[in-house]
Design goal:
single chain; about 210 residues; alpha/beta; 7-stranded mixed sheet; about 40% helix; about 20% strand
C-alpha cells in the first residue's frame, strides 16, 4: 500500500467516463439525432462555442416526456475500464469527481452507482412533466469545468498540483490545463495537443502513467 498523499481525479462524462453522448441519445427519441450529432462534433472540435451548441441541441428536445431520462440512464454504458479505474482509486483512498457539459439528471445517479459524490452538470428544465428545450442556470462550459476542478480540490483538501483531469473534447481543455496532470482520453486533436498524456481504448490504461505511481 502506497503512503504517498492522495491525488484527486476529475473526469468528463460523455465520451470519457461513458461511451456515448447523452444529448444524442435523447435526440434519437426526438428525431433530431443527426442534427445534434453534427453540432456535438463541431463543439468537441472547438469549432463553435460550447454554450451556444448546447442551447441549440437542447432546443431540439422540447416536448419529450421527462421519463426519457430514466430510459436513457438505463442505456448508458460506462467506458471500458471505468469500473476498474474507480475501484482502484477507491482502494487508494483517492477522491474522484465527475464534471459534465451533459445533464445532472443522468450524471448524479450514474455517479452514485460508482460511489462518486462530487458531481456537476447542466440541469434540464422540465415543466408539466416535459422537457422545455432549455437548461436551468449557467451552462457548464470549459471555464466552468476548470472552476469545478478547483472547487473539488478545495472541498477534499488536495492541492491543485496533485489533481488529475481526464477529458475528450475542446470543452475539457481549460480543466486539463489547470490540473496538475491532464489526460486526453480517446480525444479530439485540440485536447491531445493541450494534455500531458494521451490514452486510447481503455480508461483504466491511465493507471500505467507515472503520475498514478507518485
Amino acid at each position: 500500500m502506497s503512503h504517498t498523499p492522495p491525488r484527486l481525479v476529475v473526469m468528463d462524462v460523455d465520451s470519457t467516463f461513458i461511451t456515448g453522448e447523452v444529448v444524442e441519445m435523447l435526440a434519437a427519441r426526438a428525431g433530431s439525432e443527426e442534427l445534434v450529432t453534427e453540432i456535438t462534433e463541431r463543439a468537441m472540435r472547438g469549432e463553435i462555442d460550447f454554450a451556444k451548441s448546447l442551447h441549440e441541441r437542447v432546443a431540439t428536445l422540447a416536448g419529450l416526456p421527462e421519463s426519457v431520462l430514466t430510459d436513457v440512464l438505463a442505456e448508458v454504458e460506462p467506458s471500458p475500464g471505468a469500473s476498474e479505474l474507480v475501484a482502484e482509486l477507491a482502494s487508494r483512498g483517492w477522491p474522484v469527481g465527475l464534471v459534465s457539459g451533459g445533464f445532472i439528471e443522468i450524471v448524479r445517479p450514474l455517479a452514485a452507482s460508482f460511489g462518486i459524490t462530487l458531481t456537476r452538470a447542466n440541469a434540464l428544465e422540465v415543466v408539466d412533466g416535459r422537457l422545455t428545450g432549455r437548461v436551468s442556470g449557467a451552462v457548464v462550459d470549459r471555464a466552468a469545468k476548470a472552476r469545478t476542478l478547483r472547487e473539488y480540490a478545495a472541498a477534499v483538501g488536495i492541492p491543485m498540483e496533485r489533481t488529475i483531469a481526464i477529458g475528450d473534447g475542446a470543452n475539457d481543455i481549460d480543466m486539463v490545463v489547470a490540473a496538475g496532470f491532464g489526460i486526453a482520453y480517446n480525444a479530439k486533436p485540440l485536447l491531445c495537443a493541450a494534455a500531458d498524456a494521451v490514452v486510447r481504448d481503455r480508461l483504466d490504461a491511465v493507471l500505467a502513467l507515472p503520475v498514478f505511481a507518485s
